[in-house]
Fold this sequence. Notes:
By secondary structure, the chain is an alpha+beta fold. It is 49% helix and 23% strand.
Amino acid sequence: NAALSFRIRAAPLGPRFVLILAEDRSEALRVENVRRDFVANVSHELKTPIGAIMLLSEALVEAADDPEQVKFFANRMQLEGTRLSRLTREIIDLSRLQASDTMLGAGIVHVQDVLSLAADQSKVVADAKDIKLVIGADCGADVLGNSDLLLQCFHNLVSNAVQYSPAGSRVGVGARVVGDIVEVAVSDQGIGIAPQDQERIFERFFRVDQARSRNTGGTGLGLSIVRHVVENHGGDIRVWSRPGKGSTFTVRIPLADEATKVAHEAKRAE
Ligand code: ADP
């Protein structure tokens, strides 16, 4: 198995014995490979907007006498700058999430509050596309977590649903309690995802359609961030999708138990 790696060390123990130590380095090697891939991907992704900004600035100098052209190149530069800033922010978010599975600033989070905020953040884009954003009734679920990270997670899911859906369609956001977990579903009637891509969309920088995602400002990092946030909260995420019909992303996170809620209330009151 190529993924297995051992470091063997031997030391003499007197005239008749040798101590042999075999250290399993497989996990260290895997982490190192993941890190190397990440750095290679990051460099590649950053080169695109940086290269574009450099070319556009040259064009801008050339076009100095033509106000229409100046406006055109300046607008394009602004777009690439926005893209670069989103990319760097998401890369930093993702490295932070990967570096630790603890949640700084964890508290009791009312799930419906986060879902309403996430839906609000996508309202302008949804309205512009005449997409109906429907949010379900409050199921009363509370989880122990970081509200900023959970907001980022549900914002990414709702904004993807809106982005990959046609005008006039419907995006639904709803939560329900199932035993001791809360199940949040974000569903759309959009372009859908082919079966062979459904696991890969959670990989860093993976996009089904590179050009389309780039043109709409996508980085390919959104779902990777979502998966890390959900897993850091002890949960999981699944996708159901049919090309041309739509997709449903289901996030499951354990509910905060009563003892944890009381303890956090008491800590807040201190
Ligand atoms: P991006 O910034 O490109 O949207 P994501 O990590 O959020 O990156 O998503 C990865 C890819 O998964 C997208 O490029 C898109 O191809 C696909 N995808 C994500 N959400 C949806 C959705 N709701 N409907 C269809 N395709 C989606």
